[in-house]
């Protein structure tokens, strides 16, 4: 008999008692709980699969809105700035979600043991939605039940992870998962550019140099980068800078002027203009708003 989403919800509720993102003893597995809807929150989503057991959420990438709940799961192929918002949650029925980070090595080894599918040659958007199947829910439940028997985790977690990935490879996001793990795909080329910007977001860069790193022409990089992330490399860098500045201010590590300098801005006024354009409010008012809203920091 297949597991029901209520079984998944019960396990998350048991091991994630408070609102927030909870890492677990199972490698790459996190549990997320939130008891109220949240503000739209900018965050960088890393490669992962998110399976909701209760509640709903939306993620915005460029002009595309991805709405998912217990009937649809989300796959993220590369690290990309996203606006996420939990839209259905309450004390009685909190938002409950499983987040499993995708390990490229494990995924690649599994693909060697399965029949490869067709490669479109063109990178797809970094986010994708598919219907949750009973088989995928079963695999997720088995993985979570390992939290009941910690000594079993080192032996059984790798097996259940392969089962979960196998079920994902049988779904509509199979091509996206193959792009992540196999060969020198367009997605991996774009991924090299993304990784460089993430590591060096404080420093200016030449698009031609970035294209050389990705092993494609500047025009091809611009086209494929936008297809995956819904933004240009320079826009991606700007969002990385502004999100890091916001994090520093939220944590009380520095004020707006210091944060702007820390992330690479030479002009505080330019920083304030671009910050307001992205987040809707100037830095000081935005931070004050976020600190007043319970649950506003839950982003995964």
TrEMBL record:
Gene3D superfamilies: Homeodomain-like
Protein name: Transcriptional regulator, AraC family
PANTHER family linked: ARAC-FAMILY TRANSCRIPTIONAL REGULATOR, TRANSCRIPTIONAL REGULATORY PROTEIN
Keywords on record: Transcription, Transcription regulation
UniProt GO molecular function: DNA-binding transcription factor activity; sequence-specific DNA binding
Record-annotated HTH araC/xylS-type domain positions: 191-289
Pfam families per record: AraC_N, HTH_18
Lineage: Bacteria, Pseudomonadati, Pseudomonadota, Alphaproteobacteria, Hyphomicrobiales
């Amino acid at each position: 008999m297949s597991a029901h989403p209520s079984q998944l919800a019960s396990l998350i509720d048991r091991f994630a008692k408070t609102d927030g993102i909870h890492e677990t003893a199972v490698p790459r597995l996190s549990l997320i709980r939130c008891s109220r809807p949240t503000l739209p929150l900018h965050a960088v989503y890393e490669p992962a699969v998110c399976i909701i057991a209760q509640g709903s959420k939306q993620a915005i990438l460029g002009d595309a809105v991805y709405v998912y709940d217990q009937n649809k799961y989300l796959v993220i192929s590369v690290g990309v700035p996203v606006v996420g918002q939990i839209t259905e949650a309450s004390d009685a029925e909190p938002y409950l979600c499983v987040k499993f980070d995708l390990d490229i090595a494990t995924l690649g080894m599994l693909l060697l043991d399965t029949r490869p599918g067709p490669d479109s040659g063109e990178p797809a958007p970094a986010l994708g939605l598919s219907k949750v199947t009973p088989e995928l829910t079963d695999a997720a439940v088995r993985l979570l039940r390992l939290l009941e028997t910690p000594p079993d985790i080192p032996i059984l977690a790798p097996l259940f992870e392969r089962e979960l990935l196998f079920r994902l490879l049988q779904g509509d996001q199979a091509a996206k998962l193959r792009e992540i793990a196999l060969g020198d795909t367009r997605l991996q080329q774009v991924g090299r550019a993304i990784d460089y910007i993430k590591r060096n977001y404080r420093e200016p860069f030449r698009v031609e140099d970035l294209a050389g790193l990705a092993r494609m022409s500047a025009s091809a990089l611009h086209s494929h980068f936008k297809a995956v992330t819904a933004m240009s490399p320079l826009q991606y860098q700007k969002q990385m800078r502004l999100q890091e500045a916001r994090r520093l201010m939220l944590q009380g590590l520095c004020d707006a002027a210091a944060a702007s300098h820390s992330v690479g801005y030479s002009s505080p006024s330019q920083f304030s203009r671009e910050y307001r354009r992205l987040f809707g409010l100037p830095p000081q008012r935005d931070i004050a708003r976020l600190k007043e809203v319970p649950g506003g920091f839950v982003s995964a």
